[in-house]
Amino acid sequence: MSFQRMSFNLRDSMFFIGYIVFVIMLLIGAAMFVEDYTTSVFGYQSLPTRKANEWVIYMVALAPQVGGIGFLYAFIDGGRKNRRYATLAFGLMSVDVLTDVIYKSSMFSGGSLTSLLVAIPESIIVYSLFSELFLVVGMGFVISMTPRIFGMVRKTFGNIAVNVFDDAENEIRPMSQPDRGRPER
Description:
The protein has helices at residues 3-8, 12-46, 55-77, 83-104, 113-176. The chain is mostly helical.
């Protein structure tokens, strides 16, 4: 089921609350994305290999995150019919987790087994779930819900404006129009 169809099923009152929750989810995902990206950069830099160009480190660190997000979005929004997207997303997220774990556990610079055992679930739960998954789900729902939210806001403020102008017109009319019950002088 696509994000559009899932969000359409929400009632108006729940729709607005849901929209706020998904905006917050998107913001959390974006913030966690930055930390996840940074640990991936440091993790890839930690590999005991030479790089011919320094800039490639930043692209290699970004590729699994962007690819994982793209394929996860395609999988979820496509009604989960194409399982290859899920497989690709999972594979790329695994690469992302690996570079995070390398950095967090100091794997190549004397890190302990304890730090490795803590870094693995931290990277999977905190950074894959709260970064990639929150970003994908938050983005998917915000994109699909925004037109309806704008319509609801426009309708609400339009009704308020109409009521205000109607009230103002009713207050002004008696002053500007002669009272038909009294004869004019």
